[in-house]
User: What shape does this take?
Amino acid sequence: MIDEGNKAFWDACAAGELRVQRCITCGHLRYPISTVCPECLSEDAAWELLSGRGTVVSFCIFRHAYNEAWRDRLPYNVAIIQLEEGPRMLSNVHGVSPDEIRVDLEVKVAFEVEQGFSIPVFERAAR
Amino acid sequence: MPWGKAAISGVGASRQGKLEGETAISLATEALRNAITDAGIEKDDIDGLLTMPGSSSPEGAKHYLALGEHVGINPRFTGSLAMGGATAGALVQLAAMAVATGMANTVACVFGDAARTQGSKFDAAAGRGDSWGIWGMFGNAANSAISARRHMALYGTTSEQLGWVAVNGRRNAALSEHAVMKEPITVADHQASRMIVDPLHLLDCCLITDGGVAIIVTSPERAAAGRHRPVRLWGMGQGHTLENLGREDWWYLPHQKDCVSGAYRMAGVSPKDIDVAQLYDNFTIAVLLWLEHAGFVKVGESGPFVEGGTRIARDGELPVNTAGGNLSESYMQGWLHVVEGVRQIRGECDTRQVEGAEICLVTGRGMTLNTSSSLILGR
Assistant: This one.
């Protein structure tokens, strides 16, 4: 799963940092991870540190296990996070119940270690 | 002036439901046989073959080879396309373009799937690679659930309003010869059905069924020699957002507006001209978004429009999914939406016929809410 193209992202996560690519040619900040800039098709990019702050665009709550590995986590949310710097990420918001999660909830990144991988998730931001 | 340079001369469906022992190819073949009969042509009149591989088809993009060999068609024009629920419309469009340019005279568009008996789960993780699985994002309902949740937050849309879409589909399915689910349901039943991906209940979700559908596209002149009144393609459109997270309003499927407005422009019609609409309904929220994107209501007003179920009923101001759609008729990924559109325009729908139906909008959407196609059918 980890390859040359996404290693920097996961290495940053392991170090407790959320980094995404900024195109050196046109300056576009992009996510998902890609070998080319979807704006200008340049391959030159640098991994930029983000604040990790964002808001919930929308979310859903899984109440049915489509995948056995997730059965014991039911119910769990999956949310689209609008990152402060522009890109959007799919992730989970931890520490909020299905009744508490809201559209426009302010969140910040956190990292959860799963089977040796540090995975970016989000938590409610401190007020 | 509507475009109208190609017409649908025949439609055919196989049996629908849980069909033990059938395969994607056998069901496609059954549908093709019925479409050939419906069109009043011989198999050898077909010189174009366009197909959509089903979830149970192992051939992928080479599906046309397998089906062509199976049914003995050596076409001048062929191919397979996989755009999920937008495929039926997109293939009819390709067929129409082939006919209009003279690359083919008569094109069969064919689909078959044994999704039910072969246990297709539609549970894959989306994203690049299977990357969204990292966050537990599996299956097709989740995207639509996220879309519905945002619509609810912005416009006050309610789950009960979504329920009216399900109720409307079911009461129309009761009058459809193909329909798999005919038992009447109420909004209370919808609310009581188990939650799949919140806010979507079981009765917000399409069925998973076995079946096949075929659609014959030819010139209006050839179609006029067939068994039925030709149904001309007045307008056709597509729109796509291929970057899932690239657009801020991806959840709203903004490309669908371009998809339908393109078809309106080509047909020279506007929303008020549409007599009946077959709107792709993989999940109930999809119908609400189509109502907005197709200009039947303003942005955010689709919930109140469907509430009570009268405006979208067969005798309402905009009859929607008159055979029950993916939710109740059968999950043929939008193929039966085209069939029902054709039958409404022919005026052969008996007890579910919409009085005076002359212009029908048919929409499809698919994949991770990325793709869309639309057809405007007329006489």
Notes: The mean pLDDT of chain B is 95. The domain at 7-119+206-378 of chain B is CATH 3.40.47.10 (Peroxisomal Thiolase; Chain A, domain 1).
